[in-house]
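Researcher: We're teaching a course module on how sequence relates to structure. For the next exercise, students receive a sequence and then see the predicted structure as tokens, so they can try to spot secondary structure elements on their own. Here is the exercise chain.
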Amino acid sequence: MVMQARPAPGTVRYAACAAVAAARATGKASVRAALAAAALAVAAIWATPAAPARASEAEAVSAIRSHRVITLAPHATEIVFAAGAGEQIVGTVSSSDYPSAARRLPRVGDGITLNREIIITLKPTLFIGWLRSAAALQVERLAGRLDAEVVYFTPAKLRDIPAQVRLAGDMLGSTAYASKAAASMEDRIDALETRYSDRTIVPVFIEVGTLPLYTIGDDPLINDALRICAAVNIYASTGIPAPRVPIESVLIQQPGLIVAPARHDPASQDTLKRWTSYGLTAAARGHVHIADPDALFRPGPRLIDATEALCAAIDRARMDYP
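Model: And here is the predicted structure for the students to work with:
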């Protein structure tokens, strides 16, 4: 049994954005290579029809209260732990590193290439993935042999994250814990929307590659977070996963804040100096926000943490804008 609706165009765009951000943050691959990999993933996703999710399927999965879970994406790992069912995970992918307990889990591959032999020895009863990619399709075939379920957690809005924490709790028998955790997340989202709903809209530029310059385009999840903060991505309407943009285009639009994913503090000063030298007013005023790329770009619970920090940075920039 497979549960997933056909991925929305914005969700597919997210795959490319996340790939570019990861390349910039880790330095392990060029942005161009990351985009190429993302393009292959997108082609595989759209080439494959997905079965629509039905309530009866969710009930059938949730009827089994104890599972042996393999998560195929790091945000799926985070969602299961947030739902209070982390002890049911028996395997995951190499990039699953949060919470700390996830680092001790057996690895079944990197999310693109999976080790069938290891998966079989772990005797999974449930796989939880992100997108219906080529690797996921291999898992679906294997799941059929193992009599296991396959579920996809694909949030397109910030509120989808607590909803999927609830779903994980229902499936894995931790409903009470998951409902409490999800309610707390929803309260935090409510508080952000209430606080910023009547604020002046601030245009934001998200820098995910510098040489050449890349940004995030029409990604529903990140743009929903910006909406909650009373901000807008200046390239949200491009319709391109991770558009390459000229510096002059950014300067013409004069965003009030620059967001750059990085894992170290010096990146803030580097970004600030570079954009100040280009003549961007926001940079000259010190409005650069450095975000943990895992928290900002993984569609999991930590995106709510990242959104709170993002909203605060936007609000500081708002004082000087326009």
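Model: If you want an answer key for the exercise: The chain has two domains: 54-187, 197-318. The radius of gyration is 20 Å.
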